[in-house]
Every structure is written in structure tokens, then in C-alpha cells.
Amino acid sequence: MDLINWRISPYLLLVTLLAPLGRAQESHGPSSATAAGNSISISENSARTDRVILKVGDVQVTEAEFESRIREIEPQGDADKDDVNEKERRKQGDDYASVLMLSQRAVANHLDSTPEISRQLAIARMQVLSDAEFAGLMRQATPSFEEISQYYSAHLSEYDRVQIRRLFIWKQRDNSKNAPVLSSQAARASADRIRKAYASGTDINNLSEDLRKSGEGMLDPQPLTFPRRELPPQMEKVAFTLKEGEWSEVEDTPVRLLLIQLVKRDRQQLGEVSSSIEKNLQGDKMQALLDNLKKNAGIWMDEEYFGTAVAPVPGAQRRISVPPSELRESAKKGESNNEDQRQK
Hints:
Number of strands: 7
Shape: elongated
CATH class of the largest domain: Alpha Beta
Radius of gyration: 31 Å
Largest sheet: 5 strands, antiparallel
Helix content: 40-55%
Number of helices: 12
Order of helices and strands: HHEEHHHHEHHEEHEEHHH
Strand content: 5-15%
Number of domains: 3
């Protein structure tokens, strides 16, 4: 059995499984463990059956228990998926039985009372509780539809968008030093010729294809849509000040000349942006809740050890959207990746 592929740390396995084991040892029989399993089954999903599908010693595991807990032991192993075949389900059962067996031995050997395991269990408990409270605060911070609508109405210009067509004229054909370079005047003359041909009714697709084949530049055959803050700053500044149909020069460098045409300007509707507004408002409210909780919790940090407080970055509160334990796991992965890069 490939135990190396289990994707959960030992103390989280223990915190998942030690509780029913403790009850089993106290009762010296299956009745209390079965009753606990039945109550978990009902609370997790009333549609689940409480039939026992696995036994390890005196501990009995119901179908509902197994299907909910296997996701914690093997996040990719979703036991109730329709496409889980018999071989995969058997492996999940073997893995779960092995974890349960080993945790039973850990309790029998009083490993849960050793300083290191006790420390890990305490950390795991703290993580589970903090994540549960975090989830509750996130629900509390969920904005109402009225709040989302009010925010949208107060920030209408933020949801403007433009459809633009870009015209690039290459002033240098390739990277060789001896390649001919167009002057700005020659590049503008080439751009004017293309714009006049387009204005006179020449098919835009033909113009775009001819320009591509010539190697002289590139023209968007179809306009591209950009909401605010998705274009480079200079291009956005020009695009949102043009009138529909107008062209304007955006960039003139030794390498290229860039012009854009505003094809259409409109605004994203509330239904299109409500989810992003909800996320932002929820982040703001969540940060306010956390700040208030920290203020009232009497938190003190030794600045000689931790350093002075860092001024908050504007808008940073909107990133408060994942539980603390996930943030910690992300940080650990980042540290691991950095260490891998250093070793390379």
C-alpha cells in the first residue's frame, strides 16, 4: 500500500480519528462508537445510511462517516463520486483502515500523551477551531444584495468597458542590427494608409491578413473588450477618452508604432460584476470584524522580537478570503519552493 501518497499530516489524522477511539476504549464495545458514528452521519447528511461498512477492532465505521472522513485523509479520493470504481474504493477502504489501525495503536501506546504528539494535537485543534470561527465570520460578513447594489450605483464608472481595435506598425522587422528601420513619419504614413482603406470599406479581415503576411504590422480583425484596469495605464487613458470610431496614437518607440480605435464603450451590468463586488465587500467587512476582534482581545506583541507594526496596504483587506490554516499551508509551500530554488 502506498502510504507515502497520503496527503495529510499525522496530527490531523490523529485529531480526526482519536475521538471515536477514545470512546471505544472507555466502553470496551462497539455500542458507543456506533452511536457516535450514527449521530455524525445524521448531522453531516441525513440522506446517508448509517449501515456499518468497516470495522477495526471495536470501532465500527458507517458509510456516512467513511465518505466524509476519506476526503480529509485523501482529498482527491471522493468516495461518493459515481465514477469511483471498485478498485479505487477498495484502496480508499484499505487506506482508511490502516490509518484507523495505526491511530488505535497510538492510543494504546499512549502516544497521544507524549509531549510532541500533545503539542501537535493542540495545534491541530487550534487550527480546526480557528477555521470554524473564520468560516462563521465570513458568513457574517456576507453583504446583502442591497449593499452590493448600492456599491455598484456609487461606483458606476469603475465598471465601464471599451471595445478597441489595435494597429501595430513594426518600425524594425527583426532583431538584426542591419535591419531597415522605419522612421516615425514613415510608420504613421503606413498606418494612415491602412486606416483610410478601412474607412473606405475595405474588408477588415483582408486588411488584417495582408498586413500580417507583409510583416509590416498587425491589425485586430475583431475588436477586443477590456474593463477598466485591464489595459496598460497609457492605453487605458487614451481608450476611455476617445469617441466611438476615433483612432489615436498610443505609443511610438524605436520598435513600433501603436494606434487604437475605440469601437464601442459601454458598462458592465450589475449581474456581471455582483460576484466580484460581493467578494470585495465581504473582504472589507471581514477585515473590519478581525480588526475589532483583535482590538478587544487585548493582543500584545513584543516589538523587540516581532518588530514594529507594518502600515496596511490599501485594499489589502480584500484578500482576507481563506481560512488561517490555509494561509499557513500556503506560506509553508512558499518556503518549501524557495528552499528548492536555493538548492538548485
